[in-house]
Each structure stands twice: as C-alpha cells, then as structure tokens.
Amino acid sequence: MFPAFLTTDNLVLAGLALVIVVVAFVLDKVIRRSIARYGKRLNMEPHAINILKLVARIIVAASGVIALMILFKVPTDLFLAGGALTGTAIGFASTQTIGNFLAGFYIMVSRPFMVRDYVKIGDVEGEVKEITINYTKIYTPTYNITEIPNRKVLDSIIINYSGKKDIIDYSFKMGFPHLENRTNKQMIEDCIKPTIEKFYKKHKDVLPKKPEASMLNMDRLGREVSIRMFFPEGKINDFYDLQPELMRDIVHCWDKFKAEKCDGNC
User: Fold this and answer.
1) Has residue 142 been placed in a domain?
2) C or N: which end of the chain has fewer Cβ atoms within 10 Å?
C-alpha cells in the first residue's frame, strides 16, 4: 500500500514542480552565460555584467516562484503584496544608495568615460582610476583619489579629454596683459612658440606630439592664449609634472619678453 498522499494527482504536481525548478535552473544558466558573452563583446565593465546577471537571476527566480504558486493554487496576491511592501521599505531606507546603484549601472552601460580616461566632472579633474557601482574614483593633479557619488556624476557636466588613440588631448588657458610695444603675433611667434619648441625637444621621449598655441580671446584688459598638450594615457604622473613645467617656462619667457630681453631664446 502506498501512503495516502501519494496519489496520481500529487505525483503529477510533484513532477510538474520539478520540471519548473529544472527549467528555471537551466534558464538562469543560459541567460547568465549569454549576458557574459554579450557584455564581453561590448567591452562592458565587469560590474555592469554582474548587475545584469543579478537582475536576470531575480527575474527568473521570481517567475519560478510564481509558477509554483499557480501550480499549487497558492494566491499570488500574497507574493506580489509582500514584494511590493519589501521594495517600498528598501526604497525608503536606501533611496540614495539605490540612486547611486542605478547611476553607476547607467555610467557603466553608456560609458561617457572609461578607466584611464582623463576627465573633468564638475569641478573635479583627473584620471579615472575606477568606476564602481556607487562611486567614480578620480586621481587628481594633487596626487589624491577623489570619490564622486555616481548620482552627482550624472548631474555634472562631463568633459572627456581622452581621444580614440589613447592620447590625452588637453588644453589650458593662459592670460597676458596688453603691451604697447609688443603685438599678439610677436607674443606668439617670439615667446610662446619658441618656448614650446624647446620644451618639446626636452621631453620628446614622453610627448606623442608637440604642444600647440593659439590666440583664444582678447578684450581691453588683456588676451588669452590656449595651450594644447598631448599625453599618452597611462603616464598620468608625467602629465601632472610636465604641464606645470610648460606653464612655468612660458611665464619665465613672458617676463623676459616684457623687458625686451627675449628674442626667441628665452
């Protein structure tokens, strides 16, 4: 004699339940592997791939639970109500954390910048060292790491100075007062360009391209010159050392230029 609960209907239900569990398990494996392959093909960050895997697993698990509840005629309203209450409680308890989580996921997928890019996010400038799910870590010219919450990253203006050939294309401004006895062309040709040429010859082994100078703006108080520099990614400390050095060289030449002691040999 079989136990009373081992009826044909119960055995069929148990078999169907087992099928649902196996299908959910296999589906989870297939989807996670597909996400991994797709993510690698798109060069997505590992954090973003892991998040997609987690979301997929939650969806598959929830679908499996609902299917089992329907099979055993358990009201699904209880499951949905419990999930809604749990989600609401978590949302109220960690609004900022969830906001950073979603912002970090968006940054990893949309990729406005990547690790090793040189960027300016709001008022923070430097090399991107790491992009986590909560923070973007920037290595600044003061040789410190600044962590910016990802929600703030999305709310800020982002400037990415890194080009397609792994070169930092960076420009900075220098202001100069007007001189009665020196024209703009003389200032560029006799002071700034010779200084840049000398600087480039000195650091040619580091610089992929010679810096450039051009007139940017001029008003009654003075004029602004744009200095454009090029640096290879991955050598950010050289950039932090050499950019101030070029500025100092130009200022030194300008001081002589004002005194009419410079003739292209500052």
Assistant:
1) yes
2) N
